[in-house]
Design goal:
Structural class: alpha+beta
Strand content: 25-35%
Helix content: 25-40%
Order of helices and strands: EEEHEHHHEEEHEHHEEHEE
Number of strands: 12
CATH topology of the largest domain: Ribosomal Protein S5, domain 2
Low-confidence stretches: none
Mean pLDDT: 96
Radius of gyration: 18 Å
Number of helices: 8
Number of domains: 2
Shape: globular
CATH architecture of the largest domain: 2-Layer Sandwich
Largest sheet: 8 strands, mixed
Length: 270
Amino acid sequence: MTNTYLANAKINLFLDITGVRADGYHLLETSMQSVDLSDIVEISKTEHGISVVCSDPEIPSGEGNICCKAAREFMDLSGVSFGVRIRIEKRIPHGAGMGGGSADAAAVLKGMNELSGEPLGSDELFALAAKIGADVPFCLAGGAKLCRGIGDIMEDKRLCSAENYLVVKPDYSTNTKQAFADYDKSPVPRKEKAEPFYNVFEELFKDPETARIKRLLTENGALGACLTGSGSAVVGAFSDEETARGCAKKFPQYFTAVCHPAKSGVIRIE
């Protein structure tokens, strides 16, 4: 038996760090929006074991992939006895701050729960998602949410009403773990309230290419723009798709994608 899912990317339209827990996890306040740029995740029942393969050679397969962790944690908690084969067609850029790995892990949790007759209720599934990674609960839920804590406290709230977004990823990536380590060395003062198009990592990095991309976006019709996640992708919000597609032509050397808000994080397609 095989189920196939769209695992939607996320964008951050506001991101701030509000503290650090005793265990080292950073506390966040962030506005996240699912968008219709997605990986395709195929989950098949096997007799035993876990295998993960990905179309992108830069993404680890097997034990090094977050989907392997998601599958194993699901098996341990639910007690299912079958194995699973996971195939990922990668379309969300890696190292962009768009939650590609988290989206794939969320698809694995949803898929395995459905393949096994839904032994885990919604609350159990979201608690398990939070154990796997900070963005996984949101990627499982999807939509537009203001998230707090380590990303596991979610409130339905849309901070930006735009229906069109242009993602621009430069030809370098950001290491999220290193980004948070850099923050710990040089913390940035908190914002008093969540407002669109603010990202604490922009203040931390002061990256000239991020600034240049933002400037080109706003000069070519974006209502606002900011880094997503810890980067390296920048997202611009547009009032119409035509303007967004026209702006994309300003970045011929980079990955670009025009995308739209999605109401769900994981969507079964077959």
